[in-house]
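User: Sequence in, structure out. Go.
Assistant: Echoing your sequence, followed by the structure tokens.
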Amino acid sequence: MRVQLHPRALALLAHLALAAPLFGDSASEGREARNLHRRFDYDHDKIRGVNLGGWFVIEPFLTPTLFNNTGNPAIVDEWTFCQLQDRETAESALRHHWDTFITADDFVEIAAAGLDHVRIPVGYWMLDVEGTEPYIQGSEEFLDRAIGWAQENGIQVLIDLHGAPGSQNGNDHSGHLGPIDWPHDPVYVDRTVEVIRTLAAKYGSPPYSDTVTMIELLNEPAISVSDEMAKVTKQYYLDAYEAARWPWGREAGNQTDLIIVFHDGFRELMYWDGFLTGDGFEKVWIDDHYYQVFGVRDANVTAEQHIRRVCEEQNNFATSPFPSISGEFSIYVPPCTPAERHSALGNVGTCDKSEPNGETDYATFTQAYFDLQVELFENVGQGRGWFYYTWKSEDWEEWSYKTSRVLGWIPFRPWEHHFHLNTVCAAA
């Protein structure tokens, strides 16, 4: 069992679930309530979306088979996947993955699940490979195909730049596990700006612009590692905003209508007060990734403590100086020791974990944990909604919206909830 609820906590959650009506807002209570093919109203509708993680930026914990099939434990990210095996073999495997991991059927299912957005992570190497960089290109055509599927199903798209040259955070999901070299080389930063410019020019124009409505400048830059990193990231955000809003140059006289999203770097949202505001800035949103997973403080935490932390997060979102989204979150909480978890998330290993088998206490916890998080992201402060991480995963059920929905760990329809911040947090 991953999480054990104290009987009193379980009884309290069950009582609150029965006593409270479902929450929703009249503007966007369900997909049935609006025309799927009208333009999404970002001033009133709430984003309810999923990431398509592990597709164009491969991640070992989402698709371990792709990595295990190489037979090489040194292959831990997309860089080494392309570098440490025969190139023809790597390219064949990647093209098969791009073609089959997410298909047209997934977009039909995403829409049927009541979701209205997808966040699609891409690496800079989709558009730009230089020198000795080993990355294999070719995924752009599959991204274009995905946008077509999204359009057919009334789904809006956020394109998220997940990996920058030199790596902005040193994690495998940046494309290259290792040192954070991005802020130390101006060429890396300039290349990143140009990737944003290219993405915005293409996808911020017809025939894509009715479907691709948002662009994220950079995923999870590790601004806390140094003052230099924070300084470089802020200047990059300014330059990348210009590139995304005016990809053809201001003198051209036309601009994109994209919502431009920047990640908070895991700082409090108020840290960014006064930034990217004022004359010359419009439609700027901030992205906060809310996880209780990856830190030492997240190990050996009780279910009640996980719930209490969501309650405590309300002040952060209430004081956001920007419209806010959570571009990534999940119901996953650590089931194992930090060392085991590092093995599972940093490479292709897995944690030894027991399955909940539909036990009521685990499902009650996950339902409450999901409900409170999405109410936080939709209704607190300038909350505009959320993107679950992620739509599908091979082995980790909680990282799969698709699987968690089938198992009853999250609501079958994303606007129906039994647990509410005002009641649960008052009792926490």
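User: And one key feature?
Assistant: Confidence is low (pLDDT under 50) at residues 1-8, 18-34, 337-360.
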